Amino acid sequence: MKAVGLYKYLDISQPESLIDLEIEKPVPAGRDLLVKVGAISVNPVDVKVRAPKAKTESSPKVLGWDVAGIVEQTGPDCTLFKPGDEVYYAGAIDRPGGNSEYHLVDERIAGSKPASLDFAQAAALPLTTITAWEALFERLGIPMSKEDNTGKTLLIIGAAGGVGSIAIQLAKYAGLTVIGTASRSESSEWAKGLGADYIISHYEPFLAQMKAAGLSYADYILCLNATVQHWGHMAEAIAPQGKICSIVETEEPLDLNLLKNKSATFTWEFMFTRSLYQTPDMIKQHELLNENARLIDSRVIRTTLTDLLEPINAANLRKAHAMIETGRTVGKIVLEHFE
């Protein structure tokens, strides 16, 4: 089958950074689904995994952690799906990725594709949806009831990116007032269009800008960009007994003492945790993707697809990686159709 992968970890400008491949079609076992891939999406994690390093692979490494497609075959222990079902999912970081014609995924982390979306529109969503959902409703513990969130505010740092684009919509569905950070008119308008109530700059102290807009401290903060860079401003802007969640790893320690007097909480979100450690609650990702599909089909949430490339091949994936590396993308980049 066709796939795109790498043997060497190179700068994306190098033709060998991602190459077209022919690899063996996998066979499902256990609770795996064999999915015929319809569309894929590219995320910052793809860029991080592919980034130049002094390492080579003896067998090709296939990236890609956003897929929408059709179940072709199921493993003997599958109970949630059958051949012919349309699914969308992010997959697992410790298994081959989905940039291939066929892909294996544990059914417990796959959801039923929203019926109202095509494969490209659906492929934009899984990784960012799981990340945003887990960050908001599990790590930060935000209730999903609008009545419980009356008067509560969420600050999203990096609101126009892939995760931010879903987080805004989920937060508005839950009844929160959303403050998003953005640095350009294009990203500001995108975030506003998704429902953000206020836009502030992430180059200036957050609290001063929030006060200028008539707001006080943020009850919740979701950091999707440069945790260390924004740490002091987050600590200043968080409400007493508030909660901060970040998805961006740090290269130096964070001073948690800045949160002590406010009895504030800091937590991480990594959407691959459940599949990486095979946690007993893995199926929660299946459940939340299904619930998100319901919200999409009910017109509460919309796809975050902004750029569509065809076909799925190494040249277009190199182009998508280069776009991600600019740090200026809004929404999601999707590729569909193998040649």
Automatic annotation (TrEMBL):
**What InterPro entries does this protein's entry cite?**
ADH-like_C, ADH-like_N, ADH_Zn_typ-1, ER, GroES-like_sf, NAD(P)-bd_dom_sf, Quin_OxRdtase/zeta-crystal_CS, Zinc-ADH_QOR/CCCR
Which GO cellular component terms are attached?
Answer: cytoplasm
The question of whether Hydrolase is a record keyword is answered with no
**Compartment(s) of residence:** Cytoplasm
SUPFAM superfamilies attached here? GroES-like, NAD(P)-binding Rossmann-fold domains
Q: Which terms are listed as keywords in the entry?
A: Acetylation, Cytoplasm, Lyase, Metal-binding, NADP, Oxidoreductase, RNA-binding, Zinc
Q: Which domain of life is it from?
A: Bacteria
Q: Which CDD domains match?
A: AL_MDR
Principal subcellular localisation of the protein? cytoplasm
The family database entries (NCBIfam families) matched by this protein are listed as: adh_fam_1 (TIGR02817)
Subunit composition and interactions: Homotetramer.
Q: Which family does it belong to?
A: Belongs to the zinc-containing alcohol dehydrogenase family. Quinone oxidoreductase subfamily.
Q: What is this protein called?
A: Zinc-type alcohol dehydrogenase-like protein
